[in-house]
Specification:
mainly alpha
């Protein structure tokens, strides 16, 4: 169904509205999922960057540490 069917009078106004509402809900759900995915990706990137910084600093710390440490 779609706007074309509505314009050709193949479906009535109520069915057209229901279809529009369904599409709106699905679009909103997809946008929410994308937002969550983007946030998760950003958090993952931040954690990875922090791990890389810690790995880099651990080498320097190891080099200046006393043998007992």
């Amino acid at each position: 169904m779609g706007t074309d069917a509505y314009y050709r009078n193949a479906i009535d106004v109520e069915i057209h509205r229901e279809e529009q509402d369904r599409l709106t809900r699905e679009t909103q759900e997809v946008n929410q999922r994308l937002s969550r995915g983007t946030a998760t990706l950003k958090e993952g990137q931040e954690i990875l960057e922090m791990a890389i910084r810690l790995a880099d600093s651990s080498v320097a710390t190891y080099r200046v540490a006393k043998p007992a440490t």
